[in-house]
Amino acid sequence: MKIATYNVNGVNGRLPVLLKWLKESQPDIVCLQELKAPQDKFPEAEILEAGYHSVWLGQKSWNGVAVLSKLEKPVVSRTDLPGEDEIEASRYLEVKIKDLIIACIYLPNGNPVPGPKFDYKMRWFERLDAHAEMLITSGKKVLIIGDFNVIPTEKDVYKPEKYKNDGLFLPEVRKALENLISQGWTDALRHLYPTETIYTFFDYFRKAYERNAGMRIDHFLLSPEVVPLLKKGEVDKEVRGWEKSSDHCPVWIEIEESK
DNA sequence: ATGTCTCCAAAATGGAGA
């Protein structure tokens, strides 16, 4: 079973790219982030035509997350994290598909630092942390997937020194991700490729993709029950070079079918 | 500081967000 994540950066503006990638890559399940579309402007019909059921959480202008599935229509279990969201942003969508619990997340970017956006990111992280703890103790097959807006280590960005003061790479942000992972989660791509350079995002600025000046910020966190099922994982890097591409690449993993 | 791209606004450029 192939499970993917893709920050599309505008689901309607990117629809041709999304559909082309779906057709070529044929994932079974897809988590999308940054829909940038209100609830009633999600291209459900076109995506259904491509063979995918979808559930989504829209928002005017910003944010927005969705889960697509070829297998069966995802059953929504949560549309936000427990606790107060003072900004009411569409950033969390948790679904059940077969025996999997999938949390599709779009963690706040946090820039500029310091400031209210960074504070919001850290509060969001705390809420994610608390809920993830509940999920992992459930003993179920859980995957937290999406755009974390966190560069986990120096290995995960082309020039770490340039990002020392960035909201994606500050020590406290990396520590927050480490803390979360230390609950018992596995970073799937890093697990598969312990030492390789892996980038999932390339800025539109200054030909970042052409220069391979990227970073790894889109992640799959697997609960212990999922780790033994993990077979493969990859970044569909060439998609970033397509006309009208998002600044993120699609990323996917393959897990063994549940018996 | 800048670079680029999207969406949105009492609508054409310009701000916000990333």
TrEMBL record:
EC number assigned by the record: 3.1.11.2
GO molecular function: double-stranded DNA 3'-5' DNA exonuclease activity
The protein, known as: Exodeoxyribonuclease III
PROSITE patterns: AP_NUCLEASE_F1_1, AP_NUCLEASE_F1_3, AP_NUCLEASE_F1_4
Named cofactor requirement(s): Mn(2+); Mg(2+)
Record keywords, A-Z: Hydrolase, Magnesium, Metal-binding
Domain of life according to the entry: Bacteria
Family designation: Belongs to the DNA repair enzymes AP/ExoA family.
Endonuclease/exonuclease/phosphatase domain span: 4-248
SUPFAM superfamilies, per database record: DNase I-like
